[in-house]
Specification:
heterodimer, A: alpha+beta, six-stranded mixed sheet, five-stranded antiparallel sheet, B: 2 helices, elongated
Chain lengths: 378, 98
């Protein structure tokens, strides 16, 4: 046992001194490799963590939201629809939601305005998200100025600012009294933006949705499962920017591995020839090349994963912030909870380490099987 | 010091860091419910449906509520022009989705 370990250690010693002889080339190779693992790992871990967070946070979302469509666009829904939907067997409650968007030309930000339930919010006051407070530099007791549908200014006293911990759902939120929201947008009484429907038995959701769609053909029911699946599809690896990021990273890796696989340098061939002429077996040469590949790929894998973890979960993914923020003025501050599992690590390992190791072994095997004299002369 | 000893030492440090991060992840998941409580409470109280990730356009702010053709509704040949539109794909499971 000790003899085997000692043999491997000697080969590792030799492999490392061989790598150190071409220090510049191998260090730049290691740096590129770390960067690729970091990039692919960051994207994979980020997507997984965000999906998990969305699923946990949105567990309390309405069982079903019913929207009304007019001429193919979403329109206000009469609250009277809610009474009839409430009478459907299995529905335990229907609550109208009154909300909308407000573009603030002063700062170029979009806000989400929402009416509080009943008299939870006193008229003339509002509770605002921390993103709104930071953008408009408001504190509790200050006045938030908005312009109503006719261009007249509307003053709302800031009754409270939502904590940073709720930024992921409320950074751009302004919660106000229903009467204020109706007056601001000139919304007619008896209408709502959509209806939140609660259902006693979640297994009946699809049946109830079908009944609603049959009874009100101008409506569109959106189930909670669809709301949750939205975030799976947004960060689906096959769609959008995620596929671009992954494709760039994987393509760089392919180029990099291809460069290694297309052959060894003349110096490396000569080295193999000398080793064989002094008595090394083909198996020993392959073991040496295996360890050279392993030293680089294992070090790059571990360093890349550690850097990706730190980037995402200690520094809140600053490199992805601009991609996610786009032209938005308000961006939530959030810290993701790690959701890394063995499966993701195995996928990352197979995607990065295995191709590299194979790419280094094949040309070495080709070089190790030729005659030492020919290898030294090549 | 032998080269192999240095390599084993560096790899051991990396593995220890890696294991520490995995433990950190497990510990963080234990506190997750408490950390997410303010968000989860607000979702329940205000009956919210979406995360506030992309605030630049109405169809990216609430993707679960948006029409699948929303970016193209401004006018018939309107092209997607918000950067986050490249991240937010239309929900594929709606009956009207292509």
């Amino acid at each position: 046992m000790n003899r085997t370990i000692e043999r491997h250690r000697h080969i590792i010693d030799f492999a490392l001194s061989s790598l150190l002889r071409r220090k510049g080339k191998n260090l730049s190779l290691l740096a590129v490799y770390v960067l690729i693992v970091f990039m692919i790992g960051s994207v994979m871990f980020f997507i997984q963590a965000l999906k998990r967070e969305a699923a946990l946070i949105l567990q309390g979302a309405p069982d079903m939201v019913v929207q009304r469509l007019v001429a193919g666009r979403q329109d206000l829904i009469p609250v009277g629809y809610g009474d009839k939907i409430g009478a459907i067997r299995g529905v335990s409650g229907v609550r109208p939601r009154l909300w909308g968007y407000y573009y603030d030309p002063a700062v170029g930000a979009n806000y989400t305005l929402m009416a509080a339930d009943g008299d939870r919010q006193a008229p003339g006051t509002a509770v605002i998200g921390s993103g709104v407070a930071a953008t408009r530099r408001l504190a509790q007791g200050d006045f938030l100025t908005l312009r109503d549908y006719s261009g007249e200014p509307v003053l709302l006293e800031v009754a409270g600012i939502m904590p940073y911990a709720s930024d992921l759902v409320a950074a751009d939120l302004i919660v106000m009294a229903e009467s204020d929201l109706r007056a601001l947008f000139n919304l007619p009484g008896g209408s709502a933006t959509d209806l939140a429907v609660a259902v006693r038995n979640p297994r009946e959701l699809a049946t109830i949705a079908a009944k609603i769609a049959r009874q009100f053909p101008d409506t569109r029911p959106i189930l909670k499962s669809e709301i949750l699946r939205t975030y799976d599809s947004i960060f689906d690896w096959r769609g959008g920017m995620v596929v671009v990021l992954l494709a760039v990273a994987v393509l760089s890796f392919v180029i990099f591995a291809w460069d290694k696989a297309t052959g060894l340098s003349a110096e490396e061939r000569k080295e193999i020839g000398i080793l064989k002429s002094i008595g090394w077996e083909t198996g020993d040469v392959l073991l040496l090349k295996f360890w050279e590949g392993t030293v680089i790929s294992l070090s790059a894998f571990l360093a890349g994963v550690i850097l990706a973890y730190g980037h995402l979960f200690f520094f809140s993914a600053p490199l992805f912030e601009h991609a996610l923020k786009g032209w938005a003025v308000i961006y939530p501050r959030f810290r993701l909870t790690p959701a890394i599992d063995a499966y993701q690590l195995a996928v990352l390992f197979v995607l990065t380490v295995v191709p590299y190791t194979v790419a280094t072994i094949i040309p070495s095997w080709q070089a190790a099987t030729v005659d030492p004299d020919a290898a030294m002369r090549s | 010091m032998r080269n192999s000893t240095s390599f084993i030492a560096v790899t051991s440090v990396n593995l220890a860091l890696f294991a520490l991060f995995m433990l950190h992840g497990r510990y963080s998941r234990g506190n997750e419910a408490a950390l997410l409580k303010p968000c989860a409470d607000l979702v329940k109280r205000l009956r919210l449906t979406d995360l506030c990730l992309f605030t630049e356009a109405r169809y990216t702010r609430n993707p679960a509520m948006a029409d699948s053709h929303a970016p193209f509704q401004d006018h018939p040949v309107a092209l997607e022009h918000f950067p986050s539109g490249s991240l937010v794909t239309p929900p594929r499971f709606r009956p009207e989705a292509p």
